[in-house]
């Protein structure tokens, strides 16, 4: 049998050839890490997703195999500084300041003159990030945006950001996401181990860190957190945009629904996942439900993207707490997009039970959420939903296949005591609340379909 090292190198080599071949065929140069991110169709081509994942999985496993285990652990342990430094540069607008500087970049003294941060701090933090391929150090203490750091930019100018600090993250989902991780999530991490060892102390580490009994959503409603609530809305508005709209339109089975059937987006934020459904299925009606503050934000979203939708009655924006009885009875479809993972099992069951109590015999429940996959082969998993990884890769392809998912699982544990779930976990939730599991459609965002039992 081929040695693990040789097998890993072969996976990298063969898939790099395939990737370069695809770009050559399209007469498109492969993107340089040194240049700002300028998306092309190939960047999001689903036919290349597996190729990229295999390269990343093999490269990461090769690194873990050949590097000294001491060095690996020394690199892992201070991982909180990745989060802290990314959050810092977003907070003080470094990527935005560098946006107009071009490839020649700016000296840290020039950056300091704009954001007021000590040049020595800027130099060290930017060098830490550039060492990890976020930003490029062009010449000593001169930094420019690169492929990664350019994605940290906000949509507003530095002057506009300073003039409207509460709305500084509007339209910038990735910057919002990173800022939140470096804010309440990083603060909560300091209490992570203590909370897990003493779970009766609080609902989650978040509650200890922020000295509150409130869930994060309710905490956002408190005075002084207006900008955090708005940042969360910006992050979630981009949540649906990260996924092809076909996931949602196909997931609800809209073509098979009848004229006037109602589809309810439960905990839908502003309803960004409903927008492609609204456009694809003119014969259907939609209800977007969330807490009152999100509904206010949703009004602006729909006025911008489909101003006729709400006045026509085809889209209804409804303030609703999904821990209370569902007001829309007998809908054709109730769906939850990246909601259930926010909650521990006992709360998730309450949410699904309220939907089951409101459902008609023909109602469907559709859950769009992450699928947790074991690092080893799972004999209980449906072979049709799990692709076998090539030797010697981990069954879930490591950081390439489950890196973000496993990080998100820890985030859910840290902030909400929520969880990412396996196929078995979802089936058990359904069985406990009167929903019969029908199918799992794997993909970038898996779709779990249930019928009323």
Automatic annotation (TrEMBL):
GO biological process per UniProt? methylation
- Which Pfam families does the record cross-reference, listed alphabetically? Dimerisation, Methyltransf_2
Enumerate the InterPro entries for this protein.
COMT-like, COMT_C, COMT_dimerisation, SAM-dependent_MTases_sf, WH-like_DNA-bd_sf, WH_DNA-bd_sf
Q: Which residues form the O-methyltransferase dimerisation domain?
A: 75-153
Q: Kindly list the GO molecular function terms attached to this UniProt entry.
A: O-methyltransferase activity; protein dimerization activity
S-adenosyl-L-methionine recorded as keyword: yes
Keywords in alphabetical order:
Methyltransferase, S-adenosyl-L-methionine, Transferase
Q: Which residues form the O-methyltransferase C-terminal domain?
A: 256-435
User: Which protein is depicted?
Assistant: 4-O-methyltransferase 1
Q: What is the lineage of its organism?
A: Eukaryota, Fungi, Dikarya, Basidiomycota, Agaricomycotina
């Amino acid at each position: 049998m081929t040695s693990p090292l040789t097998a890993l190198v072969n996976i990298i080599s063969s898939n790099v050839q395939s990737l370069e071949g695809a770009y050559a065929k399209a007469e498109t140069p492969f993107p340089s890490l040194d240049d700002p991110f300028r998306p092309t169709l190939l960047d999001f081509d689903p036919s290349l997703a597996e190729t990229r994942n295999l390269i990343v999985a093999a490269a990461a496993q090769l690194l873990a195999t050949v590097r000294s285990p001491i060095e690996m652990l020394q690199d892992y342990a201070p991982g909180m500084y990745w989060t802290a430094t990314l959050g810092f540069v977003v907070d003080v607008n470094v990527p935005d300041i560098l946006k107009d500087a071009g490839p020649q970049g700016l000296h840290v003294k020039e950056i300091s003159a704009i954001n007021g941060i000590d040049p020595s701090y800027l130099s060290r933090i930017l060098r830490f990030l550039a060492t990890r391929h976020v930003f490029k150090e062009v010449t000593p203490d001169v930094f420019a945006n690169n492929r990664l750091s350019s994605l940290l930019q906000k949509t507003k100018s530095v002057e506009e950001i300073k003039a409207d600090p509460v709305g500084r993250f509007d339209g910038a989902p990735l910057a919002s996401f990173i800022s939140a991780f470096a804010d309440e999530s990083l603060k909560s991490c300091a209490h992570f181990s203590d909370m897990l060892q003493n779970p009766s102390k609080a609902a989650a580490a978040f509650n200890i860190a922020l000295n509150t009994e409130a869930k994060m959503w309710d905490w956002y409603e408190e005075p002084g957190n207006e900008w955090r609530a708005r940042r969360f809305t910006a992050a979630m508005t981009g949540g649906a945009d990260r996924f092809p709209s076909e996931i949602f339109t196909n997931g609800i089975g809209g073509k098979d629904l009848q004229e006037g059937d109602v589809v309810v987006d439960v905990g839908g934020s502003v309803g960004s996942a409903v927008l492609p459904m609204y456009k694809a299925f003119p014969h259907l009606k939609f209800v977007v439900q969330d807490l009152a503050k999100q509904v206010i934000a949703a009004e602006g979203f729909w006025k911008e993207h489909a101003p006729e939708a709400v006045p026509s009655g085809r889209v209804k924006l409804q303030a609703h707490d999904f821990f209370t009885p569902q007001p829309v009875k007998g809908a054709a479809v109730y769906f939850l997009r990246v909601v259930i993972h926010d909650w521990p099992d006992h709360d998730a069951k309450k949410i699904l039970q309220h939907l089951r109590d409101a459902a008609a015999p023909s109602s469907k429940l559709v859950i769009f959420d992450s699928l947790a996959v074991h690092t080893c082969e799972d004999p209980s998993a449906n072979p049709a939903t799990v692709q076998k990884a090539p030797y010697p890769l981990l069954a879930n392809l490591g950081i390439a296949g489950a890196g973000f998912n496993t990080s998100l699982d820890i985030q859910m544990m840290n902030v909400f005591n929520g969880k990412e779930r396996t196929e078995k976990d979802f089936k058990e939730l359904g069985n406990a609340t009167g929903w019969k599991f029908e199918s799992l459609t794997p993909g970038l965002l898996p779709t779990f379909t249930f019928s009323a039992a």
